[in-house]
Amino acid sequence: MMTSPKPARGPATQGVEWSEVRGTRILSREEIAAKYPFCRLDDIVAGSLNTLDEGAVDAMVMVDWYRRKTREHSVDYIENEVVSINRTGDRIDTPTLDRAQGDA
């Protein structure tokens, strides 16, 4: 996002980006607000958006995949609450779990 009305780079470089990426667009604050109404744009003048071959990351799918892959390598996941942390100096030795909640 650009915050200066006179950016060092801006719409003049869009041609280079477009020829290299084939999907980069420079959007005005108004265009960004129309497309992304949840953004706070008080100090934004323009922004660069890639409109081609962009995807979204589903964090929960990634976490699920990570857990499945680690379980394939014998990692156990325990669902419990840490009630204290045992230290030796500035080193953490072990967490103490609330056994009343049980292991998952």
> What fraction, in percent, of the residue positions are helical?
25-40%
Structural shape: elongated
N-to-C span: 44 Å
Strand order of the largest sheet: 1-2
Please give the number of β-strands: 4
Mean pLDDT: 78
Largest sheet: 2 strands, antiparallel
Strand content: 15-25%
Number of domains: 2
Report the C-alpha radius of gyration, rounded.
24 Å
Q: Enumerate how many helices there are, as a single number.
A: 3
Task: Describe the protein's topology.
Elements: H1 11-21, E1 24-28, H2 29-35, E2 46-50, H3 59-71, E3 82-88, E4 91-97
Antiparallel strand pairs: 1-2, 3-4
Protein name: FAD dependent oxidoreductase domain-containing protein
Domain FAD dependent oxidoreductase: 23-92
InterPro entries: FAD-dep_OxRdtase, FAD/NAD-bd_sf
Polypeptide structure, described:
- Residues 23-92 form the FAD dependent oxidoreductase domain.
- This protein has helices at 11-21, 29-35, 59-71; strands at residues 24-28, 46-50, 82-88, 91-97.
- The protein has 104 residues and is an alpha+beta fold.
- It has 2 domains: 11-50, no CATH class; 59-101, no CATH class.
- Strands 1-2 form a two-stranded antiparallel ribbon.
- The longest helix has 13 residues, at 59-71.
- It is elongated.
- The two termini are 44 Å apart.
- The mean pLDDT is 78.
